[in-house]
Design goal:
This protein has 375 residues and is mostly beta strands. The protein is 3% helix and 70% strand.
């Protein structure tokens, strides 16, 4: 069965769906019932964009809410996707919760898989998932590389009106985007079985993304009677280098009663992004004019997560869950836009387009849940 329904969530068995072969985590989410993934990677569930995405129960803190990470995770490493109703254990802000559960500890000995795919335009990838399960230790690893090119054509024909409905002007844009993405992901981890009730899990992940976007735009402005007032061609070359490193540790202790357990999680991740864009605009009407601009943006985001969870079953149909979560963030952003000055013969910062941000956030939260289901 592809979809299972439980009291507090819906489970999509991604590993049993042939449509996910050769894809990424974003493809898996797009094939998940009630979930939609837009072309820019934004995710919605049941019509809501207020989505929290988890991987193995842990939140993603990337600069783009983890979208680049999802593009790099191969579908063959995913076991299932859980669509969870609003739950304070995972998020207090409401909205939908998607938990991507990865594969590990399947059977004994060495097992795994290798997938490769090719596409036109270029949509190529190679991924491998390996798992070595022994009596006292389980080692799991994923490695993947993806190369994808997208060609997007957009046409805009927009009319502006005044307050009484008379046309004020017309804007036309013809745009062609040629986008190339390269991503690499390496993850290795292990489960140490201290005894039959205690487990220590550790993992290390490295993800790099290279984005090379090239946009060509033809821009035309007209007055109310469609006389041309300005015409220009703009070329934008945008390069982004993003790298993420993640360390994770979990300790779980199970007690005699089924479902009675205590767990502690620690996660640290650091994301560095270096972005550079060159913008060249050639205006041909009403006068010939060349505008050359450069955009530079460097970002750094560090996150620490501490989480303690305790679950106590009261009966077969009743359960109490208690927990603590601490999230500590440090974000830095250095942004600058400069324009070439033909009289000075060098680039000058555009007024109001230079910024330096240093932001720290410390969040401590506790939760308590009481669950009762009909027997």
């Amino acid at each position: 069965m592809r979809v299972l329904f439980k009291s507090d969530k819906k489970v999509y068995n991604a590993s049993k769906d042939i449509a996910n072969k050769g894809g990424t985590a974003l493809d898996v989410l797009n094939n998940t019932p009630s979930v939609i993934v837009e072309i820019d990677g934004s995710i919605s569930m049941r019509g809501s964009n207020n989505i929290t995405v988890l991987i193995d129960g842990k939140p993603q803190f990337g600069l783009d809410k983890g979208t680049d990470m999802l593009r790099a995770i191969p579908a063959n490493s995913i076991d299932k996707v859980e669509l969870i109703t609003q739950n304070a254990k995972y998020s207090a802000r409401g909205g939908g919760i998607l938990n991507i559960v990865t594969k590990k500890r399947k059977g004994s000995g060495l097992n795994g898989s290798i997938d490769a795919h090719l596409g036109v335009p270029n949509d190529n990838g190679l991924s491998a998932f390996l798992n070595e399960n022994a009596e006292k230790i389980n080692i799991f690893s994923t490695i993947s590389f993806n190369n994808k090119e997208e060609i997007i054509r957009t046409t805009i024909d927009q009319t502006y009106f005044d307050l009484i409905g008379n046309p004020k002007g017309i804007f036309e844009q013809i745009r062609k985007d040629e986008n190339q993405r390269n991503s690499f992901l390496f993850n290795i981890g292990s489960d140490f079985y201290i005894d039959k009730n205690k487990t220590l899990t550790t993992s290390f992940l490295l993800n790099t993304n290279n984005k090379n976007f090239n946009s060509n735009l033809d821009l035309n402005d007209f007055d109310a009677v469609r006389s041309l007032t300005r015409s220009a061609h703009r070329n934008v070359k945008d390069i982004d280098e993003i790298s993420t490193m993640e360390l994770f540790l979990n300790y779980t202790s199970k007690f005699l009663k089924e479902g009675h357990q205590l767990s502690f999680d620690f996660k640290f991740d650091s994301t560095v992004s270096e972005n550079a864009a060159d913008i060249l605009e050639n205006a041909t009407s009403p006068v010939f004019e060349n505008i050359i601009q450069k955009v530079a943006k460097n970002q750094n985001l560090d996150n620490f997560l501490f989480q303690l969870d305790y679950a106590l079953p009261l009966s077969e149909t009743k359960k109490i869950e208690l927990g603590y979560k601490g999230v500590f963030k440090s974000y830095k952003n250095n942004f600058n836009v400069s324009q070439f000055d033909e009289s000075l013969l060098y680039f000058v910062t555009v007024g109001g387009f230079k910024d330096v941000i240093n932001y720290d956030e410390n969040v401590n939260a506790m939760y308590g849940l009481y669950t009762a289901t009909k027997g």
